[in-house]
Every structure is written in structure tokens, then in C-alpha cells.
Write a structure and sequence with these properties.
Distance between the termini: 46 Å
Number of strands: 3
Structural class: alpha+beta
CATH topology: Ubiquitin-like (UB roll)
CATH architecture: Roll
Strand order of the largest sheet: 1-2-3
Helix content: 10-25%
Shape: flat
Number of domains: 1
Strand content: 25-35%
């Protein structure tokens, strides 16, 4: 794919960080090859890469490189 499906911007190959969510689980996967639109930022992954990310997120092996502590807050609309 050479152009973004949404905005028709140019797609550039990059390595990105993906926040992979599965149910209540969150796995951060770094250095994922992706096509990224230079204009809107939309990401495109090959089917093989998407399957590999799913395997990484659902597998307990190999052991993660490191763990992150992430604050979680609930959105509450302020009445002005």
C-alpha cells in the first residue's frame, strides 16, 4: 500500500510501539514494523505481523523485557 486509505497520504515504513489490548489485559509491544501515514498517522500491519503481535500478547513466554506501572483514571465530565 502506497497511499493511506483514509486521507490518501504517503505511507512510510517505521517501527512503532503498540498498546495491545485483549480483554482487561494490556501488553506494550515495542519495535513493531508498520506502515504509517505521514499525514494522519494511520497504521497498517502485515497479516504476519498482526498474528505475531497476538501471539506475543496472549503468550506468557518469553518473559517480558520489563514491566511498566501505568496510572488509570476514569473520565468524569466537569460541570461548568
Amino acid at each position: 500500500m502506497r497511499k493511506c486509505y483514509f486521507c490518501k497520504g504517503k505511507i512510510e515504513e517505521k517501527y512503532v510501539t503498540v498498546d495491545y489490548r485483549w480483554g482487561d489485559s494490556l501488553t506494550v509491544i515495542e519495535k513493531v514494523p508498520a506502515g504509517v501515514c505521514e499525514q494522519c498517522g494511520e497504521r497498517y500491519y502485515d497479516a504476519k505481523i498482526a498474528r505475531e503481535m497476538e501471539q506475543i500478547a496472549l503468550s506468557s513466554q518469553p518473559k517480558p523485557e520489563r514491566y511498566l506501572t501505568v496510572p488509570v483514571q476514569e473520565f468524569q465530565l466537569s460541570v461548568a
